[in-house]
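Consider one such protein record:
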Amino acid sequence: MAESGRYLFLSRPRRFGKSLTVATLNKLYSGSVKLFEGLWAGEHWGFAERQRPVIWLQFASSTFQAVGLAAAINLILAEQAAKLGGSITAG
């Protein structure tokens, strides 16, 4: 799944681990080695080679209903860019 380079749609029932799966991938690609000590990923993942900037859009905490979807996405992207030491500009 992590190596396919394709878009994935995770369709599972509520409370079935979708968020946990995405959170795990986030931590793997963010290089959180200590979280995986003693686990298979801790020994086989190759954190240094696979570390990537992670942009995670979470709409549950967004105010998109108040400001509109486009504005909320721009706000979320700006926050994510700031976390990664960058910024975004309107295109």
Observations:
- Residues 56 and 76 are 9 Å apart (CA to CA).
- The longest helix spans residues 69-83.
